[in-house]
Amino acid sequence: MKKNITLLHANDLHGQLYFTVDENYMISGGISLLSGYVKKTREEGPTFFGICGDILQEDIWGSDYKGTNTVELINHISPDAISLGNHELDYGIAHLLIFKECIEAPTLCANVVISYLGKKLFKPSLVVDVGGVKMLMIGVLPKAFFNKIMSDEFCRNSLSFTDTYVAIRQEIEAHKNEHIDLVVLMSHFGIDGDRTLAENMPEDIQVDLILGGHSHIDMDEAEVINNIPIAQSSYGTTHIGRFDITVDTEKGGIDSWTWKRVKLTEEVGPFDTGVDELADKIVFKKKPQLDNELICRFEDCFEHKSRVLESQLGDIIADSFADIYPIDMAIIQSGSLRRTECGPDVTEKDFKELYPFDDRFVIAEMTGKEIKSAFDYLFSLKLDGSVMNGTFQYSRGFRLVVDAQDCWKKGCRVEELSLNGEPFEDDRVYRIGMTKNCANSTFRYFSIVLKPENMRTVSLSTYSDLAKHFLESDERIKAPEKNRFIMKNFEG
Fold first, then answer.
1. Helix (H, G, I), strand (E, B), or coil: what is residue 352?
2. DSSP string, 361-410
3. Which of 211, 268, 357, 437 is the most buried (most CB within 10 A)?
4. Which parts of the chain register pLDDT below 50?
5. Per-residue DSSP letters for 317-372?
6. What are the tens digits of pLDDT across the range 274-306?
7. φ/ψ (deg, to 5) at 444
8. β-pairing, 2-10 with 47-52?
9. How far is Cα 202 from Cα 393, in angstroms, rounded to an integer?
10. For 337, left (φ over 0), alpha (ψ -120 to 50), or beta?
11. Could you give the CA distance from residue 185 to residue 210 in angstroms, rounded to a whole number?
């Protein structure tokens, strides 16, 4: 018998909750239109709605509420399942476990295991009946994101990562007697990772569909790799992905399918006023009041257009850390800067939006040999096909030259690494300043674990220190000297 169902999927919401209005007063995007479209589709026929990672976001509001405001809204929409993305790991394992309990939908991840119990930390899969079609939904996460929590000693000793193909095989085997019609992966591997997953799928594993996330791409059509359709649904709440599938429930598997990326407007679905009112209640009334008091003046409007490359704002913030603390150099995560431009007048509101995080600041002692090894690893080609698991801005005096030619085939090559014009000396100990969040992620970024005896906290509030530093600036802040980080042959 053949049955028709609809699979709706979203990904990388990143706390983007609000609609926009164009010059013709047309509303588009936002959590309220997303909710309205999901409700409408469910009323029209058998529907599954899943979100493939990155519900949360370390933005100006997420920093204050750690995503709890977003969680309340997601619960109102009632997805049938969600899978984990890298941003669900932003605040550490303790927050992630609380997040799992706050989200009412099943949170799926088949890769993470409590080692000494041999038990999955999250619900690995979900069997759901949609219009008489039994689907096995399996959540999968790349090992690179798992490594993000491995800098914590307790996690390293307690958790392990199961290879994705092994995890998929385990879940299919666990449900082999339930007459599963479709096996669907809810992935956050990125489009290249999903392609690799599908291309290398072992012959003994039957996967019918991959719903993905992480790449923030606008796909005009689903891709088919190794007979497996793959699709992602843009970024934020501007669009939703839609599969309309005919399933052969006697033979199992997909008989036919269509996919489209639906732009969320009032033309395709109703505006959910209930969600809109809830958003106003839990976000607008809770959000901190930001002041228009002047913090400082820049000489010009400075930019931070790319996380991968050196930026004017990145240089300014990194130099400020180097001025404030007794360090040889500062390294800051490019993603901690949340505005693409700022200035010339910088108010408290501007500054909070530019640098919304309040973290501890630590000094790590590392030898020159460790630093060189760390940057060699950062730019190397990883087993999962990634090259840079982190992007950074650096303080004055640091110089890094990298050749990115054919980086996706053989990784990038570090051609120059120096401080104040001198190469890093293997046996010399350097004081590297960074946020606590960065220090906790060095295993993921650089394949090193900072030892507690080689690290000390020198501030409990990076935001307050930076704000005070800028408030004390009597003159307009100029753009610092550039060329600290050069990517040769880089395309992106």
1. helix
2. EEEEEEEHHHHHHHHHHHTSPPTTS-S-S--EEE-TTEEEEEE-TTHHHH
3. 211
4. 58-62, 284-287
5. HHHHHHHHSS-SEEEEEGGG---SEE-SEEEHHHHHHHS-----EEEEEEEHHHHH
6. 777 777 666 544 445 556 789 999 999 999 998
7. -70, -45
8. parallel
9. 41
10. beta
11. 5
Let me know how long the chain is: 492
**Residue 331 corresponds to which amino acid?**
I
Q: What is the pLDDT of residue 171?
A: 97
How far CA 40 is from CA of 32, 33, 105, 192, 409, in Å, comes to 12, 10, 19, 32, 45
Contact 386, 461 (CB under 8 A): no
| pLDDT for position 151 | 67
Fold classification of 294-488 (topology level): 5'-nucleotidase;  domain 2 (3.90.780)
pLDDT at 408: 83
DSSP 3-state assignment of 265?
Answer: strand
- Out of 3.90.1150.10, 3.60.21.10, 3.40.50.970, 2.30.30.30, the CATH code matching 2-284 is 3.60.21.10
Asked, as a colleague might, if the bond just before 288 is cis with ω within 30 of 0, I would say: no
Sequence ranges of the domains in the chain: 2-284, 294-488
182 with 210: CB under 8 angstroms?
no
pLDDT of residue 64: 54
pLDDT of residue 492: 58
- Give strand pairing partners of 346: 296
* Strand ordering across the sheet containing 485-488: 422-423, 413-419, 398-403, 485-488
Q: What is the pLDDT of residue 22?
A: 63
Alpha helix ranges (H) inside 45-142 = 60-65, 68-77, 93-102
What is the pLDDT, as a whole number, of residue 292? 78
Distance (Å, whole) CA 127 – CA 138: 9
Quick: pLDDT tens for 300-330: 999 999 889 999 999 999 999 999 999 999 9
State the burial class of residue 103 (Cβ atoms within 10 Å of its Cβ: 0-12, 13-18, 19+): buried
